């Protein structure tokens, strides 16, 4: 392969925390980065214009292979020119492998060496996902960053169960890499870049470290994943119900061992506090549904901690959600109005609260990057945590 | 009263159609105008920034007195500085009187000379609305245009029933006018403009013509409403289930008899075709939930007629909703993507389809105004109707 999928450069560091640039074929992503989740090809409740605005300036969003494969289907998206064109987003896209979604189906799935048989959560239809199928679907979607197909073990998996799962993940990582490489070469030979959208550069493939809460398995998983060789490395299987101390412990042990010259991605995490704590342990990339899901359920993240917009105390409160926030929602709307919208069930409640939450997450990450670059990250971290815990609404 | 509530000037006309300017204390509204409906203090699914953008440029929106009175309540809105401040909209607002909403409660209401007793559609609580209460609530809301409290008769009301209802409306019009004027004077004396928001100028009060499908009653209603004297005149009680020919017939008979120097407002109407037909009969102002409600149910208005976005034929259709439309949705998104969003139940479907529908309605009215000003309205009307009926999607 002649085209470089991504390049990554660490520009500044403080302790384990790093600030860098991840260059994809669709623009530069400053790290540490939070990636809003666009499960079905939309970051729920958000117009793309808002995501692109300087206020949010999301440089990369996620798509979910499992969901998009079921609806509208990979062939429809391919026929419409790939996921970027289908949803009309020219910035970077990362697609997960479907492994985590299939895992969360629980009893509806059956795992074999070959892959996972499962019943669709929509109509119960029998489906089969494997490393090869996942790579084929992700090639059709045309994401800039593709994730290897993995198996996720429960947070409380025994050592034996976690080992079996981790070893399967390692074998699937090699199969993912192989199928991915063959397809990239085929596309290059055919003179097409993936998804045929006129962008130069190949898709990047990231590997995933598993092993549940067992540090020895996590270490072994990392070594085997590095052996296969990927453009970036992710820690999977966290934020799945384990204690927070377990998550921090795994990240603290594993992140610093991950290749320094590659981006490190902590999947499915987390709260603003989690992001900062994981950055302090060496992580560069995050995704999580919290800002969007909480926005729709009336939970708001602010510099003084969480606010429940349903609370009757806001009924005539003309203050913004967060006086320190410069987002278009805080500049314009009061808690009283947002509470009213939420209580009467208006769509605009979810739209505005999601916007603010994303602004808060993305702005926090801007602060994190700036602090690392100027050598003030430890101070930033301490002050951020003190303030969000103050609950001084 | 020393401050002029609104002024209206007809700048051009063609047949009965008029193009003019309605000057309110919150800016100039070019007529004929379509007013998006913001029932509960939000035009459903729309951010105010979008309504203000040059693309939509809505100069006036509606609020519903009945709904806002129940939730969050007039006192909350007053405490937050009036409806404009509460929702954060600095352009003009019109509030209806609550009469129509109470009428649509059907069996839940009891009408007496004094007013209407009804049970709230939310919790069944007993409420009472009268001309005086409606004026007091609308003063608290602080709309730039206030509607008299009327009684609406069913579209198929007998002559006797329609007469009784029309006569009650006439008596309520006088009571509305009286209570309104007393309050305006009180506010002026207290050195406050209504809602205390620093705007100069009084609130305007519009009267409503009733009489169901009976032209003689409509004529009498108009005469009695003019006798009371209002800043503008509305035709109410249409678009309530009667035949379209009845609606056009009433408008054709009544609109030209309404005072030429006052704005004429056809309440709750209608489709783009209805708007153009009513403009041709002399109407200046309209409101309707169609563009917003249809947006949420997947019905799209285009220059070639209506499109049902659920239709399977759009599954991989990369064309915009309307190739002649310059709105941000048509510039960016395909039918395939919009269909996908709708089918999977994503919020963004309602957001984008509502935006396009409003753009289409507001743009149609821009075209109407331009056509009247340049003397091409009859041609515009003919071409518009031919094209929307062509169904050439």
Give structural attributes:
three-stranded antiparallel β-sheet; globular; eight-stranded parallel β-sheet; 393 residues; 16 strands; alpha/beta
- Physical arrangement of strands within the biggest beta sheet of chain A: 4-14-13-12-11-10-6-5
- Summarize the main sheet of chain A: 8 strands, parallel
The structure class of chain A reads alpha/beta
The separation of the N and C termini of chain A measures: 54 Å
Low-pLDDT residue spans of chain A: none
What can you tell me about this protein's structure?
The structure is a homodimer of 393-residue chains. In chain A, strand 7 and strand 8 (116-119) form a beta hairpin. The mean pLDDT of chain A is 94. In chain A, the strands form four sheets. The first copy, chain A, has an eight-stranded parallel beta sheet with strand order 4-14-13-12-11-10-6-5. In chain A, strands 1-2-3 form a three-stranded antiparallel beta sheet. The longest helix of chain A is centred in the middle third of the chain and has 31 residues, at 159-189. Chain A has helices at 48-52, 65-70, 74-79, 83-87, 99-103, 131-141, 159-189, 215-228, 244-254, 272-280, 290-296, 328-332, 335-343, 347-373, 377-390; strands spanning 7-14, 17-24, 27-31, 33-36, 60-63, 92-95, 109-111, 116-119, 126-129, 145-147, 204-209, 232-235, 264-266, 285-288, 299-302, 305-308. By secondary structure, the first copy, chain A, is of the alpha/beta class. The N and C termini of chain A lie far apart (54 Å). Chain A binds chain B through residues 40-42, 44-49, 71-72, 76, 79-81, 85-88, 315-316, 318, 328, 332-334, 336-337, 340-341, 343-344, 346-348, 350-352, and chain B through 40-42, 44-49, 71-72, 76, 79-81, 85-88, 315-316, 318, 328, 332-334, 336-337, 340-341, 343-344, 346-348, 350-352.
């Amino acid at each position: 392969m002649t085209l470089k999928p991504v390049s990554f450069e660490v520009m500044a560091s403080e302790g384990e925390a790093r600030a860098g640039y991840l260059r994809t074929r669709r623009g530069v992503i400053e790290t540490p980065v939070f990636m809003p989740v666009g499960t079905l090809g939309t970051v729920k409740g958000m117009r793309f214009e808002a995501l692109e605005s300087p206020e949010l300036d999301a440089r990369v969003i996620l798509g979910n292979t499992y969901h998009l494969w079921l609806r509208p289907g990979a062939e429809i998206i391919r026929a419409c020119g790939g996921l970027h064109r289908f949803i009309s987003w020219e910035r970077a896209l990362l697609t997960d492998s479907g492994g985590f979604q299939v895992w969360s189906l629980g009893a509806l799935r059956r795992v074999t060496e070959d892959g996972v048989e499962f019943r669709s959560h929509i109509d119960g239809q029998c489906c089969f996902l494997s490393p090869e199928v996942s790579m084929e679907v992700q090639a059709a979607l045309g994401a800039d960053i593709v994730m290897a197909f993995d198996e996720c073990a429960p947070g409380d998996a025994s050592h034996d169960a976690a080992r079996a799962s981790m070893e399967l993940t390692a074998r699937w990582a090699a199969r993912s890499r192989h199928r991915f490489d063959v397809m990239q070469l085929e596309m290059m030979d055919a003179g097409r870049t993936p998804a045929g959208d006129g962008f130069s550069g190949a898709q990047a493939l990231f590997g995933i470290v598993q092993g549940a809460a067992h540090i020895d398995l996590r270490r072994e998983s990392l070594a085997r994943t590095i052996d296969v060789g990927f453009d970036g490395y992710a820690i999977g299987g966290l934020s799945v119900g384990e204690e927070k101390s377990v998550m921090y412990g795994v990240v603290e042990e594993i992140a610093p061992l991950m290749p320094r010259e590659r981006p490190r991605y902590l999947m499915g995490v987390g709260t603003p506090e989690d992001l900062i704590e994981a950055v302090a342990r060496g992580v560069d990339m995050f995704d999580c549904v919290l800002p969007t899901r909480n926005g729709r359920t009336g939970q708001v993240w602010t510099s003084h901690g969480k606010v429940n917009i349903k609370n009757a105390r806001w009924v005539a409160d003309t203050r913004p959600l967060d006086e320190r926030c410069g987002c278009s929602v805080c500049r314009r709307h009061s808690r009283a109005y947002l509470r009213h919208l939420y209580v009467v069930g208006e769509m605009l409640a979810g739209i505005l609260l999601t916007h603010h939450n994303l602004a808060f997450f993305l702005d926090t990450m801007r602060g994190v990057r700036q602090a690392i670059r100027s050598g003030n990250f430890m101070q930033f971290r301490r002050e951020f945590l003190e303030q969000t815990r103050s609950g001084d609404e």
